[in-house]
Amino acid sequence: MRFYDQAELELLALIANFTLGRWAEAEAHAHRNLALLRPDLKRNRALALVHLAHAQLGQDALGHAVATGRAVPADARHGRTGRLLNAFDARLKTRAPDTSETKEWADHIRQMGSTAA
């Protein structure tokens, strides 16, 4: 475990709380992870952002969730990150189908030509 730094431990705690649906705790770990994360760990940053967007959505903070989802770089929208974005897209459309935030997200996805649809 010595090779894990505090940012990586925060990411693991984020994922555990995300899996349990503990949205406030997941959000807190996401913010700590992002604050501690080395700039060169772009994949980890993208994963933390997607998990953070889900956690915000789980707390009905639609505007924050969409803004966070939009912050995921286009070149990171594949693999696990892409699948998590697809799940975020589906959850957002189910939770708040007719909101301005959902429309904003749909416009963003169209502009990005992303896998999240």
How would you explain this protein's 3D organization?
The protein has 117 residues and is an all-alpha fold. It has one domain: Serine Threonine Protein Phosphatase 5, Tetratricopeptide repeat. Helix content is 72%, strand content 0%. The protein contains six helices and no strands. Helix 3 packs antiparallel against helix 4. The longest helix is centred in the middle third of the chain and has 17 residues. It is globular and about 45 Å long. The chain starts with 5 loop residues before the first helix and ends in a 5-residue tail after the last helix. The mean pLDDT is 93.
Strand content: under 5%
Radius of gyration: 14 Å
DSSP helical segment count: 6
Taken together, the total number of domains comes to 1
Q: Would you tell me the structural class of the helices and strands?
A: mainly alpha
Uncertain residue ranges:
none
DSSP E strands, number:
0
**3D shape:** globular
Mind describing the biggest β-sheet? none
- From the N-terminal CA to the C-terminal CA, the straight-line distance is 37 Å
CATH architecture assignment: Alpha Horseshoe
Broad CATH class: Mainly Alpha
Order of helices and strands: HHHHHH
